[in-house]
């Protein structure tokens, strides 16, 4: 079973790229972030024609998450949004059950400039995610939490880390929040299989970042203990970042052994 996450950076602007990638790679499940579209503007007919069912939690102009599953797979939405701030209307979390696996698709706040209100919101959101994650672990079921976490966990995950020390994605508070989340009992799938390799998932549009491979690893898969023994492969479709009018992120994927 192949599961992918992809920050599309505008689903309508990147729709041809998304559809081409779906056709070429044929993942079973896809979590999308940064749709930048309200629900009524989601290209659901095009997605359906590509062979996928979908649920989404859109938002006008920014944010937005979606989960796609091949049409032969049942997708059951079981939650959207995180508890803790009833007034928070940002569309950043969507949860579904597919093939008896709970899949949480998330788009964690960027948090810049830091320090400041946006960074405070990022840390609060991280705390709310950690509480949800603990609840899921306590249910003792297979769970995947995947998406754009907007954090580079270690210096290995960022090109020239000394340039990022004051950035919200790399500040000590952010990295601690990610490590505290992982310490609940989650496994970083990419690092499980490739503990020492340089792997990036994001390259800025500026300063030829992609050409120089000056990237960041900010899109992650966290697996509950049930799924770690089933993890057989993982990777980044880096070539997609080089396509015309592509997102500044590349798709990231894992493969799990089927029952």
TrEMBL record:
Membrane-crossing residues? none
Site: Important for catalytic activity. Where? Answer: 219
Cofactor, how bound (note)? Probably binds two magnesium or manganese ions per subunit.
Q: One GO BP annotation here?
A: DNA repair
According to the UniProt entry, the coiled-coil residues are none
SUPFAM superfamilies registered for this protein in UniProt: DNase I-like (SSF56219)
All copies of domain Endonuclease/exonuclease/phosphatase, residue ranges = 4-249
Task: Give the matching PANTHER family.
Answer: EXODEOXYRIBONUCLEASE III (PTHR43250:SF1)
State what protein this is by name: Exodeoxyribonuclease-3
Q: Which InterPro entries match?
A: AP_endonuc_1 (IPR004808), AP_endonuclease_F1_BS (IPR020847), AP_endonuclease_F1_CS (IPR020848), Endo/exonu/phosph_ase_sf (IPR036691), Endo/exonuclease/phosphatase (IPR005135), ExoIII-like (IPR037493)
Q: Which residue positions hold the site described Interaction with DNA substrate?
A: 249
Cite the active-site annotation.
107, 148 (proton donor/acceptor), 249 (proton acceptor)
Q: Name one GO molecular function term.
A: DNA binding
Question: Which cofactors, by name?
Answer: Mg(2+); Mn(2+)
- Entry-linked Pfam families: Exo_endo_phos (PF03372)
The record lists the organism as Salinimicrobium sediminis
Q: Where is this site: Transition state stabilizer?
A: 150
Q: What keywords appear on the UniProt entry?
A: Hydrolase, Magnesium, Manganese, Metal-binding
Q: Which family does it belong to?
A: Belongs to the DNA repair enzymes AP/ExoA family.
Q: Quick one: which residues bind Mg(2+)?
A: 7, 34, 148, 150, 248-249
